[in-house]
User: What shape does this take?
Amino acid sequence: MQRFHALLLLSLILCACSNGASSPQTLPASDPTPTITLTLEFPTTAPTFEGCAYMWAYKDMFELTTRLDESIKSADPTAKAWATAFGEDCIHADGRVDFLTRETDFYVHSTVADLTDYGSFGNWIVQAMMIIEDLPDELIVGPISGFVEFWFIKNDAEHVIVRVSIQQYQDEAAGKSGEELFQMFFTGQ
Assistant: This one.
């Protein structure tokens, strides 16, 4: 039993000298510990937005307006007419602006004595539409047919406005004139 006590005593002494965990393994000096190095790279220039911001816009069409106004005045010297391109300005981050045309729109103003003469108004619409349809195709821009806005003006406070869709006019107004044509497009004010 003395042997058992000696063995027990020796075990207790060894346990007391130990830190309670197995000792860590050490690598030989010839095996270096791997090192991980992280490198962060930052861009030297800020990223730029390559698209553009869109905003509805109108552009004057000087050459088309000149031809249109001359032709309208030859039919009615008191009238005046002009054309605009309607579309979107594409505004780039660097300040450049590109205009993207949607349609060409026309405006015809005529002086009248009587705002109820719908027959004459309809006939004038037919005459002006013939002038517009005879304009050179290369001067009319945009993938969509625009409109012609007619103003029949008695004075600064009294007028009648009729907006004629060019596509609807071409599709539905053949053979119509006078008051029938006027009523087809007049929506009232």
Notes: Strands lie at 52-60, 80-92, 97-111, 147-153, 159-165.
